[in-house]
Amino acid sequence: MNKILILVVEDDRPVRNLIVTTLKTHDYKYLTAENGTTAIMEASSHQPDIILLDLGLPDMEGVDVIKKIRTWSNVPIIVISARNEDTDKIEALDAGADDYITKPFSVEELLARIRVTIRRLAMLGMGEMQDTSVFENGDLKIDYTAGCTYLKEEELHLTPIEYKLLCLLARNVGKVLTHTYITQQIWGSSSENDIASLRVFMATLRRKLEPDKNGTAYIQTHIGIGYRMLKV
User: Fold this and answer.
1) What is the torsion angle, in degrees rounded to the nearest 10, for the CA atoms of residue 203, residue 209, residue 211 and residue 213?
2) In the chain, which segments carry CATH 1.10.10.10?
3) CATH architecture of 134-229
4) Cα–Cα separations (whole angstroms), residue 87 to 83, 169, 180
5) Cα–Cα distance, 96 to 63 (Å, whole number)
6) Where located (predicted)?
C-alpha cells in the first residue's frame, strides 16, 4: 500500500467514486469528505499528504476551505472543479491551491498531477528546495550562495529580475504560481503594468533557459493564470 494519504473532498457521488476507485487501483490510501466542514475536520485530525478538493460544496465554497486549511497547513491542495473560468482558477490558486484540474478530467491526468505533487513533497522532505545552497533540475543548476545559474555547465547571464523570477519558480517547482503571486513577490505590487512587465521578463528568461525550441522545457505557461516550473 502506498504511504501517501489523500483526502478526497467531493459531494458528487459518481465523481467521488471515480476518484476513489482510481486511488484504490493504484494503492493510494484515501479519506473522503462530502462537505467543507468535514473536509476541514479530516484535514486537521488525519493530516493527509494531498487534498483533492471540489469548489462547489454544499455547505461552503471550496476557496474558503483552502483559506481555512492554509491557516495551519501547507498540505498540497489540488482543486478538481467544473468551474473553468480563469477567474475561478486564479481565486483558488491565490487562496493557496497548488494545482487545478477542470472537470471532466481523465484518470491519467489526475494520476499525473498526483505524481507531480508527490515528487514535490519528496523534494521538500529532502530539503532540496529550502535547506541546500544548490538547486538542480535536469541540466539547470542554481547556486544560491554564489547567485549564479548554469545550463549544461555553462553560466547563464541573467538580469537581477530574471534571477529572482527563476529562484521563485525553482523554490515552488511543480506548483502553479499566479501572476498576482509572482508580481507581489518580485515587485511588491500587482498592477496591470507589473503583469505586463512580468510577461516580458518571463519571455526573456525562457529564451535563455530554453534556447532550443525542441529542447527541454522548464517553464510552463498557464494562459491568463500564471507559470509553473516543471520537474524534468
Assistant:
1) -80
2) 134-229
3) Orthogonal Bundle (1.10)
4) 9, 22, 12
5) 9
6) Cytoplasm
Question: What's the pTM value of the predicted model, to 2 decimals?
Answer: 0.78
Over residues 56-89, the pLDDT tens digits come to 999 999 999 999 999 999 899 999 999 888 899 9
Phi/psi at 133 (5° precision):
-95, -5
| CA dist., res. 29 & res. 44, Å (int) | 17
**199 burial via Cβ count (<10 Å: 0-12, 13-18, 19+):** exposed
Mean pLDDT for 118-128 is: 69
Whether residue 131 is predicted with pLDDT greater than 70 in this model: the reply is no
Q: What is the DSSP letter of 8?
A: E
Q: Both ends of the chain: CA-CA distance in Å?
A: 27
Of 73, 19, 16, 66, the residue nearest 45 (C-alpha):
73
Half-sphere exposure of 211 (CA within 13 A, CB side): 7
Burial of 66 (0-12, 13-18, 19+ CB in 10 A): buried
Can you name the residues that pair with 195 across neighbouring β-strands?
A: none
Helix (H) or strand (E) holding 32: strand 29-33
Which residues of the chain form CATH 3.40.50.2300?
5-126
- Three-state DSSP string of 134-158: EEEECCEEEECCCCEEEECCEEECC
